[in-house]
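> example.struct
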């Protein structure tokens, strides 16, 4: 079905063709026809769960209080809390680019999620804005660019970086279970590739690319720190300063008796950081330690014992009778491991001798020595009786190796919540984007912890939660008395949605 109209502008005639219905190949004896008469539809029905949790945590409202808004409120149509919700909820729903919001500004359901009362855009001032309830890309762009240190119209909304940093820590500490006796903080750095001549652009030899080097801290799946840094510095730079702020918030909530363990890879094994942690009461560390020839010599007896265990006994006797100082390498299909407790101090960089746990491993016939350094002895009151601290092997395998899960959290942050979408020219606005991404991750991860425990999505990544629970087709009907939302009848996660809704309605919030 086609409707044709002809318009004349002077001597030139134009023909406008507007197709109101679309016919497709039939199905059996029935025609297949589509049109755009569905009304207010959305593919993000699960955003109602995000809104419910956001309101319980008061997250977007608290985040909006970390900005200064000097706009003339007589002419403001998009209030700051609504802008914050639109950006954070948009990221949580998978819309990484500000250009996406040129479409999303028409989405009445997202307007509901953002708390925009004029959800059909009927009260907009300008005629061309009628029907567009939410802000477009330009308004959101000014929100982000307002973080950079310049004057002018972009500075009408100004981000207070110290307040946002403090809020992320506060929200994260609130989410840590109240009865925790031991709190483990995982630190790690990763690469964030740079494209173009951006501020803070440096080449990183390890990643072999021009990139930023953001620093993250997680407690389990709870984000506590996200700092965008240039890559011309050590991976551990800023860790002590971050720890001071995080520990202050932890002590305020949990008191002085709670034990805090800082866990990280060998990039954070620095004497200054270890000295500082050793001087803090009830604070410990466990860091990976890069191998060197001295450490490998200390671990050699353990390797020899392992080789004797893996080799044929007759071969061992023959080798010793021949006066060999060491045993030959194992065959390629032989695998085994042993652990050793060592005392070690570097010749120059360390201020004292420290406990080192060495792993003598032979995977597929080749040696693979690994080391960690810690100030945990296993004799502390809180560690006594805990299986993971009873010996070197348990400490390495059950405690230190668990830090690998943090890399999954970073992958969620980078890949699912677009934390690497730092494409503006200015580092301050890129830092603000990283924080928006982190709060979006925090919102969905708390949804997982609070509302999805025991369901099929209890251990799902935030990307999977978005795909299966947030991306639900919905039809919205607006009347004077209510906003009625019809979700897809065939939704396979309807039972999970119902359980999540029930739990969120009962959830009192943190505090």
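> example.seq
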């Amino acid at each position: 079905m086609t409707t044709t109209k002809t318009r004349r502008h002077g001597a030139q005639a134009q023909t406008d063709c507007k197709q109101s219905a679309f016919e497709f190949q039939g199905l059996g004896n029935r025609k297949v026809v589509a049109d755009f008469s569905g009304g207010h539809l959305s593919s993000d029905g699960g955003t109602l769960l995000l809104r419910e949790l956001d309101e319980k945590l008061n997250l977007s409202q608290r985040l909006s209080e970390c900005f200064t808004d000097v706009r003339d409120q007589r002419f403001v149509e998009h209030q700051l809390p609504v802008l914050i919700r639109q950006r954070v909820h948009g990221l949580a729903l998978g819309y990484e680019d500000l250009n996406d919001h040129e479409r999303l500004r028409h989405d009445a359901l997202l307007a509901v999620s953002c708390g925009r009362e004029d959800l059909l855009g009927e009260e907009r001032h300008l005629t061309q804005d009628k029907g567009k309830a939410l802000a477009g890309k330009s308004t959101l762009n000014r929100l982000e660019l307002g973080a950079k240190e310049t004057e002018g119209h972009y500075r009408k909304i100004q981000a207070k970086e110290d307040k946002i940093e403090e809020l992320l820590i506060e929200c994260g500490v609130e989410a840590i279970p109240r009865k925790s006796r031991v709190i483990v903080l995982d630190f790690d750095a990763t690469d964030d590739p740079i494209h173009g001549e951006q501020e803070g652009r440096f080449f990183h030899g390890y990643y072999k690319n021009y990139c930023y080097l953001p620093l993250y801290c997680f407690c389990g799946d709870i984000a506590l720190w996200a700092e965008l840094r240039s890559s011309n510095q050590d991976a551990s730079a800023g860790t002590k300063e971050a720890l001071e702020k995080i520990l202050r918030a932890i002590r305020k909530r949990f008191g002085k008796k709670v034990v805090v363990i800082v866990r990280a890879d060998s990039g954070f094994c620095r004497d200054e950081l270890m000295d500082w942690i050793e001087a803090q009461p009830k604070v410990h560390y466990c860091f990976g330690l890069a191998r060197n020839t001295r450490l490998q010599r200390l671990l050699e007896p353990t390797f020899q014992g392992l080789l004797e265990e893996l080799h044929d006994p007759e071969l061992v006797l023959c080798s010793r009778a021949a006066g060999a100082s060491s045993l030959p390498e194992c065959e390629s299909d032989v695998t085994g491991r042993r652990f050793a407790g060592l005392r070690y101090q570097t010749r120059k960089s360390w201020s004292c001798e420290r406990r080192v746990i060495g792993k003598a491993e032979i995977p597929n016939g080749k040696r693979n020595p690994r080391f960690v350094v810690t100030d945990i002895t296993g004799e502390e009151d809180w560690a006594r009786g805990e299986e993971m601290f009873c010996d070197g092997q348990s400490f390495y395998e059950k405690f230190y190796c668990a830090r690998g899960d943090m890399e999954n959290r970073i992958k969620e942050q980078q890949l699912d919540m677009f934390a690497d979408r730092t494409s503006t020219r200015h580092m301050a606005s890129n830092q603000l984007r990283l924080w928006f991404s982190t709060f979006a991750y925090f919102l969905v991860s708390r949804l997982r912890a609070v509302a999805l425990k025991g369901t099929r999505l209890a251990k799902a990544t935030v990307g999977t939660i978005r795909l299966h629970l947030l991306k639900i087709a919905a039809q919205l009907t607006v009347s004077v008395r209510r906003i009625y939302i019809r979700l897809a009848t065939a939704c396979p996660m309807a039972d999970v949605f119902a359980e999540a809704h029930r739990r969120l309605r009962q959830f009192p919030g943190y505090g």
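> remarks
Residues 126 and 132 are 10 Å apart (CA to CA).
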